[in-house]
Design brief:
The protein has helices at 3-14, 25-34, 43-51, 66-71, 83-89, 107-118, 130-136, and strands at residues 39-41, 59-62, 78-79, 99-102, 124-127, 141-143, 146-148. By secondary structure, it is α/β, with parallel strands linked by helices. It is built from seven helices and seven strands. It has a five-stranded parallel beta sheet. A two-stranded antiparallel sheet has the order 6-7. Strand 2 (59-62), helix 4 (66-71) and strand 3 (78-79) form a beta-alpha-beta unit. The chain starts with a helix and ends in a 28-residue tail after the last strand.
Length: 176
């Protein structure tokens, strides 16, 4: 577990929150409290934005680990688990380029968005509910070969927020 995810889990635990039955409220509240300066973008708003092909599209930055990104991600997303990776991915982008960060539930990506704001990027937004909510809503996902319908579940307790049918299962783990 990353330090940021561990801190998020600690905040939820201190608040007496559990992630039973896909209850997003404590997660979203924790993220907003921890990163109040980071604007959010809903999954519905990102989907609508992507449908408006005549508009400038945001740069999508996936803040998850490479193993998570390999299972699935948003089409066109750039893998950027750390701010240095994001800066490289944004090398030719102006500071006012629209950027949307995401991860599994939004905590790691909110941290990335915060770091980008500190580096001078002005139009950074974090995808609220991130990839888990996007997948739960049946929105499109891809891997290097094309469309997929599963997401790396990251781990407990976060995987409780991802619909069971959307959880990727490691084939190596089932061969015991």
């Amino acid at each position: 577990m990353t330090r940021a995810a561990g801190a998020g889990l600690a905040l939820l635990a201190l608040a007496g929150c559990r992630l039973d039955d896909g209850d997003w409220a404590p997660v979203k509240t924790t993220i907003r409290l921890r990163y109040p300066q980071v604007d959010i973008l809903t999954t519905q708003d990102l989907s609508a934005w992507q449908a408006r092909t005549d508009e400038v599209q945001p740069v999508l930055l996936d803040a998850r680990a490479v193993s998570e990104f390999a299972v699935s991600h948003l089409a066109g997303a750039r893998h950027a688990p750390h701010v240095d990776d994001a800066i490289v991915a944004l090398a030719s982008a102006a500071l006012d380029t629209p950027i949307v960060t995401y991860c599994s539930v939004g905590y790691r990506s909110a941290g990335l968005a915060d770091q980008l704001l500190q580096r001078g990027y002005t139009r950074v937004r974090n995808l609220e509910g991130s990839l888990f909510q996007w997948a739960n809503e049946g929105r499109p996902l891809v891997d290097v070969e094309g469309p997929v319908d599963v997401v790396h579940p990251y781990g407990e307790p976060w995987s409780d927020l991802l619909d069971e049918a959307r959880r990727w299962r490691d084939p190596a783990a089932s061969s015991e």
